[in-house]
Design a protein that fits this description.
Layout (H helix, E strand, L loop, with lengths): L1 H17 L7 E2 L22 H18 L5 H20 L4 H6 L1 H13 L8 E12 L8 E5 L17 E4 L11 E19 L4 E17 L2 E2 L2 E2 L5 H13 L7
Parallel strand pairs: 1-2, 4-6
Antiparallel strand pairs: 2-3, 2-5, 3-4, 5-6, 7-8
């Protein structure tokens, strides 16, 4: 009897962790998708205050002007004075502009890696996510496709998210988004399969770089966003979604 109780308790804990029955997949939050092993790294630019960052940018612009041939002798003298004053002010805060410049490429690569690396914990797992679906041109084999993003407006009125915050979704035959940013709950097998496409969204041709691929088995639409009815399913949104479904839209290969 005691062993039976322990088994039931373990099942209760597992169900509570997943949030839904096991068949529905592990409930995953967007913040869990990046690879945690590459998220912590040295980034001296991140430690700058807004004022310090502005001073660094100003110093770089002044250096660029002085390296060129433009400007009168009086203007160039003024730029030199401003440069010395700006770099001296930064030096009082122990900020070395030359050292920051030497770190720029390394920091850029670290940021790219942090934004593109997917969490291997979920590779090949059946998961459930909630997000906003963007209709996309179908795959060459005719399979319906959408992109899932964590926030309303991404890739249209907002920039695209980092690749590990975008999921390319191969949909089943039962559903495709009827408008941009339709809120959905998707369940399926998630794999780390980086892809890069270009397609027309709202503001023109948009790069769609996704770290993950989700083969959706179950799709549930949700009519509310943060407790409010989501009714801005404009005619333009519907026509654009229909164009992707019927004509394939504009796309580029990997």
């Amino acid at each position: 009897m005691r062993n039976r109780f322990r088994i039931l308790s373990l099942a209760t804990v597992v169900l509570a962790f997943c949030g839904t029955p096991l068949a529905a997949g592990i409930v995953v939050e967007w913040a869990e998708l990046p690879d945690p092993s590459v998220q912590v790294f040295e980034d001296p630019y991140r430690d700058l205050s807004p004022e310090q960052f502005d001073d660094v940018v100003f110093a770089l612009r002044l250096r660029s002007r002085l390296q060129g041939t433009g400007g009168t002798a009086q203007e160039r003298q003024k730029w030199q004075v401003l440069l010395v004053e700006t770099e001296d002010a930064l030096a009082t805060d122990d900020i070395d502009v030359d050292w920051l410049l030497s770190q720029r490429e390394a920091v850029t690569e670290r940021r790219k890696l942090a934004g593109a690396s997917g969490n291997p914990l979920f590779d090949g797992r059946v998961v459930t996510l909630v997000g906003f679906a963007i209709p996309a041109p179908p795959d060459p084999d005719g399979h319906a496709v959408a992109y899932l993003v964590p926030k309303l407006g991404m890739c249209s009125h907002m920039p695209p998210p980092p690749p590990n915050q975008m999921i390319r979704v191969r949909l089943n035959d039962d559903w495709t988004p009827s408008y941009l940013h339709e809120q959905v709950q998707l369940t399926g097998t998630l794999t780390i399969a980086p892809s890069s496409r270009h397609m027309v969204v709202v503001d023109g041709l948009m790069p769609m770089r996704a770290t993950f691929l989700l083969d959706a088995d179950s799709i549930k639409t949700q009519d509310t966003v943060q407790g409010q009815t989501y009714n801005n399913k404009s005619l333009v949104d519907r026509l654009r979604a229909a164009a992707h479904r019927k004509t394939g839209g504009l796309t580029a290969s990997d």
